[in-house]
Amino acid sequence: MTAARNLSNMTLAHEIAVNENFELKQDALPENSLAGRVKHIVHQAFWDVLESELNADPPEYEHAIKLFEEIREILLSFLTPGGNRLRNQICEVLDTDLIRQQAEHSAVDIQGLANYVISTMGKLCAPVRDDDIRELKASSNIVELLRQIFHVLDLMKMDMVNFTIRSIRPHLQRQLVEYERTKFQEILEETPSALDQTTEWIKESVNEELLSISETALTPGAENSSKSSLSPTVVLNNSYLKLLQWDYQKKDLPETLVTDGARLQELTEKLNQLKIIACLSLITKNMVGAVTEGFPQLADRLKRISAVLLEGMNKQPFNLKEALNSIGLQTCVEVNKTLTERGLPTLNAEVQANLIGQFSSIEEEDNSIWSLIDKRIQLYMKSLLCLPSSQKCMPSVPGGLSVIQQELEALGSQYANIVNLNKQVYGPFYANILRKLLFIEETTGKVNASSPPN
After folding, report:
1. DSSP 3-state assignment of 401?
2. Which member of 46, 172, 438, 444 lies 3.0 to 4.6 Å from 17 by CB, making a disulfide possible if both were Cys?
3. Given a cut of 90, is residue 153 above it in pLDDT?
4. How far is CA 29 from the centre of its chain?
5. Distances (CA, A) of 6 to 180, 185, 262
Protein backbone atom coordinates (compact mmCIF):
# COMPACT_ATOMS: atom_id res chain seq x y z
CA MET A 1 0.00 0.00 0.00
CA THR A 2 2.88 2.36 0.79
CA ALA A 3 4.51 1.63 -2.57
CA ALA A 4 1.20 2.15 -4.37
CA ARG A 5 0.68 5.46 -2.59
CA ASN A 6 4.20 6.63 -3.46
CA LEU A 7 3.67 5.65 -7.10
CA SER A 8 0.34 7.51 -7.20
CA ASN A 9 1.89 10.66 -5.69
CA MET A 10 4.89 10.47 -8.00
CA THR A 11 2.72 9.99 -11.08
CA LEU A 12 0.47 12.91 -10.17
CA ALA A 13 3.41 15.21 -9.45
CA HIS A 14 5.06 14.23 -12.74
CA GLU A 15 1.87 14.87 -14.71
CA ILE A 16 1.32 18.29 -13.12
CA ALA A 17 4.93 19.31 -13.79
CA VAL A 18 5.34 18.17 -17.40
CA ASN A 19 1.79 18.62 -18.75
CA GLU A 20 0.96 22.33 -19.02
CA ASN A 21 -2.66 21.44 -19.89
CA PHE A 22 -3.19 19.11 -16.96
CA GLU A 23 -6.30 19.83 -14.91
CA LEU A 24 -8.83 17.87 -12.91
CA LYS A 25 -12.37 17.49 -14.18
CA GLN A 26 -15.55 16.27 -12.60
CA ASP A 27 -16.27 12.63 -13.23
CA ALA A 28 -19.32 12.26 -15.44
CA LEU A 29 -21.21 8.99 -15.25
CA PRO A 30 -21.97 7.43 -18.65
CA GLU A 31 -25.35 8.31 -20.07
CA ASN A 32 -28.07 5.71 -19.39
CA SER A 33 -25.72 3.78 -17.09
CA LEU A 34 -27.16 2.07 -14.01
CA ALA A 35 -25.05 4.23 -11.70
CA GLY A 36 -26.16 7.35 -13.53
CA ARG A 37 -29.84 6.44 -13.27
CA VAL A 38 -29.56 5.56 -9.58
CA LYS A 39 -27.81 8.85 -8.85
CA HIS A 40 -30.47 10.82 -10.72
CA ILE A 41 -33.32 9.03 -8.90
CA VAL A 42 -31.78 9.53 -5.45
CA HIS A 43 -31.00 13.20 -6.07
CA GLN A 44 -34.43 13.86 -7.53
CA ALA A 45 -36.07 12.19 -4.52
CA PHE A 46 -34.11 14.43 -2.14
CA TRP A 47 -35.11 17.64 -3.94
CA ASP A 48 -38.72 16.47 -4.18
CA VAL A 49 -38.78 15.93 -0.41
CA LEU A 50 -37.23 19.37 0.17
CA GLU A 51 -39.85 21.01 -2.05
CA SER A 52 -42.72 19.27 -0.23
CA GLU A 53 -41.30 20.35 3.14
CA LEU A 54 -40.96 24.00 2.12
CA ASN A 55 -44.49 23.99 0.64
CA ALA A 56 -46.01 22.43 3.74
CA ASP A 57 -48.20 24.44 6.13
CA PRO A 58 -46.38 25.33 8.28
CA PRO A 59 -43.10 24.90 6.30
CA GLU A 60 -40.45 22.47 7.52
CA TYR A 61 -36.95 23.97 7.30
CA GLU A 62 -34.63 21.35 8.81
CA HIS A 63 -33.34 19.95 5.47
CA ALA A 64 -32.93 23.46 4.07
CA ILE A 65 -30.95 24.53 7.16
CA LYS A 66 -28.58 21.56 6.72
CA LEU A 67 -28.04 22.59 3.11
CA PHE A 68 -27.10 26.13 4.19
CA GLU A 69 -24.76 24.67 6.78
CA GLU A 70 -23.01 22.68 4.03
CA ILE A 71 -22.94 25.74 1.76
CA ARG A 72 -21.32 27.75 4.55
CA GLU A 73 -18.49 25.22 4.93
CA ILE A 74 -17.89 25.15 1.18
CA LEU A 75 -17.74 28.96 0.99
CA LEU A 76 -15.31 29.09 3.92
CA SER A 77 -13.07 26.56 2.17
CA PHE A 78 -12.61 29.01 -0.71
CA LEU A 79 -11.21 31.77 1.52
CA THR A 80 -7.53 32.60 1.76
CA PRO A 81 -5.91 32.88 5.22
CA GLY A 82 -6.26 36.67 5.11
CA GLY A 83 -10.00 36.76 4.38
CA ASN A 84 -11.10 37.20 8.00
CA ARG A 85 -13.68 39.91 7.31
CA LEU A 86 -15.59 37.83 4.77
CA ARG A 87 -15.16 34.74 6.93
CA ASN A 88 -16.82 36.46 9.87
CA GLN A 89 -19.62 37.73 7.66
CA ILE A 90 -20.35 34.27 6.21
CA CYS A 91 -20.40 32.72 9.68
CA GLU A 92 -22.71 35.47 10.92
CA VAL A 93 -25.24 35.35 8.08
CA LEU A 94 -25.24 31.54 7.76
CA ASP A 95 -25.33 30.87 11.51
CA THR A 96 -27.44 27.70 11.57
CA ASP A 97 -28.41 28.09 15.23
CA LEU A 98 -29.80 31.54 14.48
CA ILE A 99 -31.57 30.26 11.35
CA ARG A 100 -33.20 27.48 13.41
CA GLN A 101 -34.45 30.01 15.94
CA GLN A 102 -35.90 32.10 13.11
CA ALA A 103 -37.51 28.99 11.63
CA GLU A 104 -39.20 28.18 14.95
CA HIS A 105 -40.86 31.61 14.83
CA SER A 106 -41.60 31.38 11.07
CA ALA A 107 -39.28 34.32 10.46
CA VAL A 108 -36.59 32.68 8.31
CA ASP A 109 -35.98 34.21 4.87
CA ILE A 110 -34.79 31.31 2.70
CA GLN A 111 -34.77 33.44 -0.46
CA GLY A 112 -32.76 36.14 1.28
CA LEU A 113 -30.18 33.60 2.47
CA ALA A 114 -29.94 32.16 -1.05
CA ASN A 115 -29.41 35.66 -2.48
CA TYR A 116 -26.60 36.26 0.02
CA VAL A 117 -24.99 32.97 -0.95
CA ILE A 118 -25.16 33.87 -4.66
CA SER A 119 -23.66 37.31 -3.97
CA THR A 120 -20.80 35.74 -1.99
CA MET A 121 -20.21 33.15 -4.69
CA GLY A 122 -19.93 36.00 -7.20
CA LYS A 123 -17.10 37.51 -5.11
CA LEU A 124 -15.22 34.22 -4.81
CA CYS A 125 -15.69 32.59 -8.22
CA ALA A 126 -13.37 32.72 -11.20
CA PRO A 127 -14.42 34.99 -14.11
CA VAL A 128 -15.37 31.89 -16.11
CA ARG A 129 -18.30 31.36 -13.69
CA ASP A 130 -19.83 34.84 -14.11
CA ASP A 131 -22.49 33.56 -16.51
CA ASP A 132 -23.44 30.80 -14.06
CA ILE A 133 -23.85 33.36 -11.29
CA ARG A 134 -26.09 35.51 -13.51
CA GLU A 135 -28.27 32.48 -14.23
CA LEU A 136 -28.60 31.81 -10.50
CA LYS A 137 -29.78 35.37 -9.90
CA ALA A 138 -32.49 34.92 -12.53
CA SER A 139 -33.92 31.78 -10.94
CA SER A 140 -37.17 32.18 -8.94
CA ASN A 141 -37.90 28.60 -7.77
CA ILE A 142 -36.14 28.25 -4.40
CA VAL A 143 -35.65 24.47 -4.62
CA GLU A 144 -34.23 24.61 -8.14
CA LEU A 145 -32.12 27.58 -7.04
CA LEU A 146 -30.57 25.62 -4.17
CA ARG A 147 -29.95 22.70 -6.53
CA GLN A 148 -28.14 24.93 -9.02
CA ILE A 149 -26.17 26.62 -6.23
CA PHE A 150 -24.66 23.25 -5.34
CA HIS A 151 -23.91 22.55 -9.00
CA VAL A 152 -22.03 25.84 -9.37
CA LEU A 153 -20.24 25.30 -6.05
CA ASP A 154 -18.98 21.96 -7.40
CA LEU A 155 -17.64 23.76 -10.45
CA MET A 156 -15.99 26.36 -8.22
CA LYS A 157 -14.33 23.58 -6.23
CA MET A 158 -12.73 22.24 -9.41
CA ASP A 159 -11.69 25.78 -10.38
CA MET A 160 -9.99 26.16 -7.00
CA VAL A 161 -8.22 22.80 -7.31
CA ASN A 162 -6.96 23.63 -10.80
CA PHE A 163 -5.87 27.10 -9.67
CA THR A 164 -3.84 25.42 -6.93
CA ILE A 165 -2.33 23.03 -9.47
CA ARG A 166 -1.26 25.94 -11.69
CA SER A 167 0.21 27.71 -8.67
CA ILE A 168 2.36 24.79 -7.54
CA ARG A 169 3.48 23.77 -11.05
CA PRO A 170 6.58 26.05 -11.14
CA HIS A 171 7.67 24.72 -7.74
CA LEU A 172 7.15 21.12 -8.82
CA GLN A 173 9.08 21.71 -12.04
CA ARG A 174 12.06 22.97 -10.03
CA GLN A 175 11.94 20.06 -7.58
CA LEU A 176 10.68 17.31 -9.89
CA VAL A 177 13.93 15.42 -10.51
CA GLU A 178 14.83 15.11 -6.84
CA TYR A 179 11.23 14.42 -5.80
CA GLU A 180 10.66 11.63 -8.35
CA ARG A 181 14.01 10.03 -7.63
CA THR A 182 13.32 10.03 -3.88
CA LYS A 183 9.82 8.62 -4.31
CA PHE A 184 11.04 5.87 -6.64
CA GLN A 185 13.77 4.95 -4.16
CA GLU A 186 11.06 4.55 -1.51
CA ILE A 187 9.08 2.35 -3.89
CA LEU A 188 12.19 0.26 -4.55
CA GLU A 189 12.78 -0.21 -0.83
CA GLU A 190 9.20 -1.39 -0.37
CA THR A 191 9.19 -3.49 -3.57
CA PRO A 192 12.66 -4.84 -4.48
CA SER A 193 11.32 -6.18 -7.81
CA ALA A 194 10.34 -2.67 -8.95
CA LEU A 195 13.20 -2.59 -11.50
CA ASP A 196 12.78 -6.06 -13.01
CA GLN A 197 11.13 -4.92 -16.25
CA THR A 198 13.55 -2.00 -16.56
CA THR A 199 16.47 -4.41 -16.21
CA GLU A 200 15.05 -6.68 -18.93
CA TRP A 201 14.47 -3.65 -21.17
CA ILE A 202 18.13 -2.60 -20.90
CA LYS A 203 19.41 -6.18 -21.04
CA GLU A 204 17.66 -6.65 -24.38
CA SER A 205 19.60 -3.71 -25.80
CA VAL A 206 22.87 -5.09 -24.42
CA ASN A 207 22.27 -8.40 -26.18
CA GLU A 208 21.35 -6.68 -29.44
CA GLU A 209 24.51 -4.55 -29.32
CA LEU A 210 26.66 -7.62 -28.70
CA LEU A 211 25.00 -9.40 -31.62
CA SER A 212 25.55 -6.39 -33.86
CA ILE A 213 29.24 -6.26 -32.93
CA SER A 214 29.72 -9.97 -33.58
CA GLU A 215 28.01 -9.71 -36.99
CA THR A 216 29.94 -6.66 -38.19
CA ALA A 217 33.37 -7.48 -36.80
CA LEU A 218 34.91 -9.63 -39.54
CA THR A 219 38.57 -9.14 -38.64
CA PRO A 220 40.64 -11.68 -36.65
CA GLY A 221 40.28 -11.24 -32.93
CA ALA A 222 36.61 -10.25 -33.11
CA GLU A 223 35.90 -12.96 -30.59
CA ASN A 224 37.64 -10.80 -27.97
CA SER A 225 34.73 -8.33 -28.02
CA SER A 226 33.09 -8.26 -24.61
CA LYS A 227 30.33 -6.53 -22.71
CA SER A 228 32.83 -4.17 -21.13
CA SER A 229 33.59 -2.73 -24.58
CA LEU A 230 30.00 -1.53 -25.01
CA SER A 231 29.14 2.10 -24.40
CA PRO A 232 26.54 2.48 -21.62
CA THR A 233 25.24 5.61 -23.35
CA VAL A 234 24.72 3.79 -26.65
CA VAL A 235 22.98 0.91 -24.90
CA LEU A 236 20.65 3.23 -23.00
CA ASN A 237 19.86 5.33 -26.09
CA ASN A 238 19.01 2.20 -28.05
CA SER A 239 16.71 1.18 -25.21
CA TYR A 240 14.90 4.51 -25.53
CA LEU A 241 14.58 4.01 -29.29
CA LYS A 242 12.71 0.77 -28.63
CA LEU A 243 9.91 2.83 -27.10
CA LEU A 244 9.08 4.19 -30.57
CA GLN A 245 8.13 0.69 -31.70
CA TRP A 246 6.61 -0.53 -28.44
CA ASP A 247 3.37 -2.52 -28.42
CA TYR A 248 1.61 -0.51 -25.73
CA GLN A 249 -1.47 -2.73 -25.81
CA LYS A 250 0.30 -6.00 -25.07
CA LYS A 251 3.62 -5.13 -23.45
CA ASP A 252 4.19 -3.41 -20.11
CA LEU A 253 6.52 -0.43 -20.03
CA PRO A 254 9.68 -0.41 -17.90
CA GLU A 255 8.81 0.77 -14.39
CA THR A 256 10.86 3.95 -14.78
CA LEU A 257 8.77 5.08 -17.76
CA VAL A 258 5.27 4.43 -16.44
CA THR A 259 4.70 8.13 -15.64
CA ASP A 260 5.24 8.99 -19.32
CA GLY A 261 3.43 5.98 -20.75
CA ALA A 262 0.45 7.87 -22.17
CA ARG A 263 2.70 10.52 -23.77
CA LEU A 264 5.00 7.90 -25.30
CA GLN A 265 2.06 5.93 -26.68
CA GLU A 266 0.50 9.03 -28.24
CA LEU A 267 3.88 10.04 -29.68
CA THR A 268 4.41 6.57 -31.18
CA GLU A 269 0.95 6.54 -32.73
CA LYS A 270 1.49 9.96 -34.33
CA LEU A 271 4.90 8.84 -35.56
CA ASN A 272 3.40 5.77 -37.25
CA GLN A 273 0.94 8.01 -39.05
CA LEU A 274 3.80 10.25 -40.23
CA LYS A 275 5.71 7.20 -41.46
CA ILE A 276 2.80 6.21 -43.68
CA ILE A 277 2.42 9.76 -45.02
CA ALA A 278 6.15 9.83 -45.86
CA CYS A 279 5.85 6.44 -47.61
CA LEU A 280 2.87 7.62 -49.66
CA SER A 281 4.70 10.80 -50.64
CA LEU A 282 7.79 8.85 -51.70
CA ILE A 283 5.73 6.42 -53.80
CA THR A 284 3.86 9.29 -55.45
CA LYS A 285 7.11 11.10 -56.20
CA ASN A 286 8.75 8.00 -57.68
CA MET A 287 5.78 7.08 -59.86
CA VAL A 288 4.28 10.40 -61.03
CA GLY A 289 6.85 12.93 -59.86
CA ALA A 290 7.91 13.66 -63.44
CA VAL A 291 4.42 14.92 -64.37
CA THR A 292 3.64 16.68 -61.07
CA GLU A 293 6.98 18.40 -60.54
CA GLY A 294 6.58 22.10 -59.96
CA PHE A 295 3.16 21.82 -58.26
CA PRO A 296 3.98 22.29 -54.51
CA GLN A 297 0.32 22.97 -53.69
CA LEU A 298 -0.54 19.47 -54.92
CA ALA A 299 1.92 17.84 -52.51
CA ASP A 300 0.47 19.80 -49.60
CA ARG A 301 -3.08 18.86 -50.61
CA LEU A 302 -2.19 15.17 -50.89
CA LYS A 303 -0.54 15.30 -47.46
CA ARG A 304 -3.68 16.80 -45.89
CA ILE A 305 -5.89 14.18 -47.54
CA SER A 306 -3.66 11.37 -46.24
CA ALA A 307 -3.66 12.81 -42.73
CA VAL A 308 -7.46 13.06 -42.67
CA LEU A 309 -8.04 9.52 -43.97
CA LEU A 310 -5.47 8.09 -41.53
CA GLU A 311 -7.06 9.80 -38.52
CA GLY A 312 -7.76 7.25 -35.81
CA MET A 313 -5.62 4.56 -37.44
CA ASN A 314 -4.51 3.29 -34.02
CA LYS A 315 -8.05 2.67 -32.82
CA GLN A 316 -10.43 -0.17 -33.48
CA PRO A 317 -12.11 -0.95 -35.84
CA PHE A 318 -9.87 1.05 -38.23
CA ASN A 319 -9.08 -0.79 -41.49
CA LEU A 320 -5.68 0.41 -42.70
CA LYS A 321 -5.84 -1.41 -46.04
CA GLU A 322 -9.16 0.25 -46.92
CA ALA A 323 -7.80 3.63 -45.85
CA LEU A 324 -4.69 3.22 -48.01
CA ASN A 325 -6.85 2.19 -50.96
CA SER A 326 -9.04 5.28 -50.46
CA ILE A 327 -5.95 7.51 -50.28
CA GLY A 328 -4.72 5.96 -53.53
CA LEU A 329 -8.02 6.64 -55.29
CA GLN A 330 -8.15 10.20 -53.98
CA THR A 331 -4.51 10.79 -54.96
CA CYS A 332 -5.28 9.76 -58.55
CA VAL A 333 -8.28 12.12 -58.59
CA GLU A 334 -6.23 15.07 -57.28
CA VAL A 335 -3.29 14.43 -59.63
CA ASN A 336 -5.59 14.15 -62.67
CA LYS A 337 -7.46 17.28 -61.61
CA THR A 338 -4.20 19.24 -61.39
CA LEU A 339 -2.99 17.93 -64.75
CA THR A 340 -6.31 18.76 -66.42
CA GLU A 341 -6.25 22.32 -65.05
CA ARG A 342 -2.87 22.83 -66.70
CA GLY A 343 -3.87 21.23 -69.99
CA LEU A 344 -1.70 18.14 -69.48
CA PRO A 345 -2.67 14.50 -70.19
CA THR A 346 -4.02 12.61 -67.17
CA LEU A 347 -2.63 9.38 -65.73
CA ASN A 348 -3.56 6.27 -67.67
CA ALA A 349 -5.44 3.39 -66.03
CA GLU A 350 -2.33 1.22 -65.65
CA VAL A 351 -0.38 3.90 -63.79
CA GLN A 352 -3.34 4.62 -61.52
CA ALA A 353 -3.81 0.94 -60.70
CA ASN A 354 -0.10 0.56 -59.99
CA LEU A 355 -0.09 3.62 -57.72
CA ILE A 356 -3.11 2.39 -55.73
CA GLY A 357 -1.58 -1.08 -55.47
CA GLN A 358 1.71 0.26 -54.09
CA PHE A 359 -0.18 2.39 -51.57
CA SER A 360 -2.12 -0.65 -50.34
CA SER A 361 1.05 -2.75 -50.04
CA ILE A 362 2.60 -0.44 -47.42
CA GLU A 363 0.97 -2.40 -44.61
CA GLU A 364 2.49 -5.66 -45.79
CA GLU A 365 5.31 -7.14 -43.74
CA ASP A 366 8.85 -6.30 -44.93
CA ASN A 367 7.63 -3.62 -47.35
CA SER A 368 10.84 -2.08 -48.65
CA ILE A 369 9.58 1.54 -48.68
CA TRP A 370 8.23 1.24 -45.15
CA SER A 371 11.55 -0.25 -43.98
CA LEU A 372 13.48 2.58 -45.63
CA ILE A 373 11.38 5.35 -44.07
CA ASP A 374 11.39 3.61 -40.69
CA LYS A 375 15.22 3.36 -40.68
CA ARG A 376 15.57 7.03 -41.59
CA ILE A 377 13.19 8.12 -38.84
CA GLN A 378 15.03 5.91 -36.35
CA LEU A 379 18.29 7.51 -37.49
CA TYR A 380 16.82 10.98 -36.96
CA MET A 381 15.51 10.15 -33.49
CA LYS A 382 18.85 8.58 -32.57
CA SER A 383 20.67 11.74 -33.63
CA LEU A 384 18.36 13.71 -31.31
CA LEU A 385 19.36 11.54 -28.34
CA CYS A 386 23.05 12.13 -29.10
CA LEU A 387 22.66 15.92 -28.92
CA PRO A 388 23.60 17.70 -25.66
CA SER A 389 20.40 18.56 -23.79
CA SER A 390 21.44 22.22 -23.79
CA GLN A 391 21.61 22.36 -27.61
CA LYS A 392 18.48 23.93 -29.06
CA CYS A 393 19.01 23.46 -32.81
CA MET A 394 17.53 20.37 -34.45
CA PRO A 395 19.59 17.93 -36.55
CA SER A 396 19.00 17.83 -40.29
CA VAL A 397 16.15 15.61 -41.46
CA PRO A 398 17.24 12.63 -43.65
CA GLY A 399 16.21 12.51 -47.29
CA GLY A 400 12.68 11.42 -48.10
CA LEU A 401 11.26 12.95 -44.91
CA SER A 402 10.93 16.58 -46.01
CA VAL A 403 7.16 16.18 -46.43
CA ILE A 404 6.82 15.51 -42.69
CA GLN A 405 9.76 17.64 -41.51
CA GLN A 406 7.73 20.11 -39.44
CA GLU A 407 5.70 17.43 -37.66
CA LEU A 408 8.76 15.19 -37.22
CA GLU A 409 10.76 17.98 -35.59
CA ALA A 410 7.89 18.73 -33.18
CA LEU A 411 7.55 15.05 -32.23
CA GLY A 412 11.32 14.70 -31.99
CA SER A 413 11.55 17.63 -29.61
CA GLN A 414 8.78 16.16 -27.44
CA TYR A 415 10.49 12.76 -27.47
CA ALA A 416 13.89 14.23 -26.56
CA ASN A 417 12.36 16.18 -23.67
CA ILE A 418 10.77 13.01 -22.26
CA VAL A 419 14.03 11.08 -22.57
CA ASN A 420 16.24 13.82 -21.12
CA LEU A 421 14.00 14.27 -18.08
CA ASN A 422 13.82 10.50 -17.61
CA LYS A 423 17.63 10.29 -17.70
CA GLN A 424 17.92 13.02 -15.09
CA VAL A 425 15.49 11.31 -12.72
CA TYR A 426 16.47 7.67 -13.14
CA GLY A 427 20.11 8.03 -14.20
CA PRO A 428 21.50 6.55 -10.96
CA PHE A 429 19.19 3.52 -11.23
CA TYR A 430 20.19 2.95 -14.88
CA ALA A 431 23.87 3.29 -13.93
CA ASN A 432 23.54 0.51 -11.35
CA ILE A 433 21.78 -1.77 -13.84
CA LEU A 434 24.34 -1.10 -16.58
CA ARG A 435 27.21 -1.64 -14.14
CA LYS A 436 25.85 -5.07 -13.28
CA LEU A 437 25.12 -6.02 -16.90
CA LEU A 438 28.31 -4.71 -18.50
CA PHE A 439 31.02 -4.89 -15.89
CA ILE A 440 30.25 -6.98 -12.84
CA GLU A 441 29.16 -10.03 -14.89
CA GLU A 442 32.23 -9.62 -17.11
CA THR A 443 34.56 -9.40 -14.11
CA THR A 444 32.91 -12.38 -12.44
CA GLY A 445 33.31 -14.41 -15.62
CA LYS A 446 37.05 -13.66 -15.80
CA VAL A 447 37.57 -14.54 -12.15
CA ASN A 448 35.78 -17.85 -12.61
CA ALA A 449 37.76 -18.64 -15.72
CA SER A 450 41.09 -18.03 -14.00
CA SER A 451 40.26 -19.95 -10.81
CA PRO A 452 41.64 -23.50 -10.66
CA PRO A 453 39.00 -26.22 -10.55
CA ASN A 454 38.43 -28.02 -7.25
Report:
1. coil
2. 172
3. yes
4. 22
5. 10, 10, 19
